[in-house]
Amino acid sequence: MKTFIFLLIAAGWGRSCLGQLPDTSRIFVTANPYLLPISKAAIKGSYPIEVAYQKTTHIIFPARIKDFDAGSDAVIALVPENVTNVLRVKANIKGFAEETNMTIITEDGGFYSFLVNYNENPEVFNINIANNLQSDAKVASHLGIGSINPFNQTQESKRIIPTNELLSFSQKVNAKSAFLVGIGMVKNECTAMIMGVYRKQDVTFLQIKLQNESELDYEWDFIKFFVKERHTIKRMAVQNEELTPLYVHPESIQSIGAKTERKMVFALPIKSITDNKLISVEIYERGGGRHLTFEIDDSVLNQAKSI
Question: What domains are defined for the chain?
Answer without folding.
Answer: 42-143 (2.60.40.1550), 163-306 (2.60.40.10)
